[in-house]
Amino acid sequence: FTPEYKGVVSVSFEEDEEGNLCLIAYPLHNEPENMENKDPSADCEPKSKMIKWGNKKTSSLLLENDNYSKDRARQSTKENKSKSYNGAEAQQQAEVLCYSLDQKQVKHNPWSLKCHQQHLQRMKENSKHRNQYKFILSENLTWRHAVPCVLDLKMGTRQHGDDASEEKKANQIRKCQQSTSASIGVRLCGMQVYQSDSGQLMFMNKYHGRKLSLPGFKEALFQFFHDGQRLRRELLSPVLRKLREMQETLESCESYRFYS
């Protein structure tokens, strides 16, 4: 489960015909250091062949929360007077939610969508100074799976590097002390798991992971290996074997120290 390095791509920040902000990736045919102020399309493939990821809002994400639904019903009259409520942002802010896969369209989990939109905004603010960015291209380990289940764990009891500022150091120490990182050296940073009984993906973000107690962390691991109908025990041994292999590899590296 380690992605392979696939090289470097040239990425430009552009708007499409509908005014949507997009990232356009081009193969990098020139040396990376010579690409800073060069027109990306000059030595690259046509845009139609490139990866394009915009910031269109997805309307298919469904919050599975009774309290949320009731609150929304009570607020319906207020919404007719004011259109300030943003449903997509509410989905992005939710720490635990499910979204349906019954509609045949591209889905993004809400946390990824939020992070992507924030990154687009930062690139937009800097685009007047740069027209092109270099990105490392890594393998997408989930591409073979229609509904990938992903568990993101932050390992270690220390998360700040030696070069961190005092403010960042204090912030990282506080996060460790207030989570399972302090007690067991690991905490949940994100999870997406498919529930075969309901046809939905359940999603947890890093803010929920920070709040988990030790029993809550164990329950989250149980949920990850549970498909909605049964606990998939046949996956436990292969995962443990891969983890042991990774541990042995890291322990054999004498010149590196990995902070989570």
From TrEMBL:
Start and end residues of each stretch annotated as Disordered: 31-50, 64-88
Alphabetical UniProt keywords: Kinase, Transferase
GO MF term set: inositol hexakisphosphate kinase activity
EC annotation from Swiss-Prot or TrEMBL: 2.7.-.-
Keyword Ubl conjugation appears in the UniProt entry: no
GO biological-process terms attached to the record: inositol phosphate biosynthetic process; phosphatidylinositol phosphate biosynthetic process
InterPro entries documented for this protein: IPK, IPK_sf
Organism domain of life: Eukaryota
GO cellular component annotations of the record: cytoplasm; nucleus
Bias type Basic and acidic residues, positions: 31-48, 67-82
Protein family according to the UniProt entry: Belongs to the inositol phosphokinase (IPK) family.
PANTHER family hit by this protein: INOSITOL HEXAKISPHOSPHATE KINASE 2 (PTHR12400:SF47), INOSITOL POLYPHOSPHATE KINASE (PTHR12400)
Record's protein name: Kinase
The organism of origin for this protein: Oncorhynchus mykiss
The encoding gene: PiUS
